[in-house]
Amino acid sequence: MNIQIINGPNLNLLGVREKSIYGSADFESYLADLQQHFTDINISYYQSNVEGEIINKLHEIGFIYDGIVLNAGAYTHTSIAIADAIAAINTPVIEVHVSNVYKREEFRHHSMLAASCKGVITGFGLNSYRLGIESFLLNINS
Ligand SMILES: O=C1C[C@@](O)(C(=O)O)C[C@@H](O)[C@@H]1O
């Protein structure tokens, strides 16, 4: 099984940015733990701060991979273009967030992407990514 994790803007600063909200672990260390945990799964990782690059990555793997775990950061709340890309591809996408966006500012309560995704996981810290991967293993996405 091939799973792609895509992180959007500012998520390269996990472990550094707003630690009280996002925690102090950096994503690369967490990714290594994930890869050790899911030994039967090929987990690829991509991060970009650029909307068009995230769309290009969705196009590139969206007809090949078995699942995509996407944290689009603030583009979640603004990007019709990423929503259209998710709708255009075949691979199911799970939207994830580190923080519980519903406990935060109102502008974070709306996702432009959620309606095009199979599901949304929010508020479990970095383990939101693990839960996203687990959902593909449970085969509850079709
Ligand atoms: O950059 C982010 C991170 C986030 O997606 C999260 O993982 O909690 C939540 C977004 O509202 C925010 O813009």
From TrEMBL:
Binding site for substrate: 71, 77, 84, 98-99, 108
Site (Transition state stabilizer): 17
Coiled coil, from the record: none
Keywords: Amino-acid biosynthesis, Aromatic amino acid biosynthesis, Lyase
Active-site feature positions: 22, 97
EC number per UniProt: 4.2.1.10
GO molecular function, one term: 3-dehydroquinate dehydratase activity
Catalysed conversion reaction: 3-dehydroquinate = 3-dehydroshikimate + H2O
Pfam families: DHquinase_II (PF01220)
Pathway: Metabolic intermediate biosynthesis; chorismate biosynthesis; chorismate from D-erythrose 4-phosphate and phosphoenolpyruvate: step 3/7
Subunit description: Homododecamer.
Role played: Catalyzes a trans-dehydration via an enolate intermediate.
Cited PANTHER family: CATABOLIC 3-DEHYDROQUINASE (PTHR21272)
Family membership noted in the UniProt record: Belongs to the type-II 3-dehydroquinase family.
UniProt-recorded name of the protein: 3-dehydroquinate dehydratase
Organism: Mucilaginibacter litoreus
Gene: aroQ
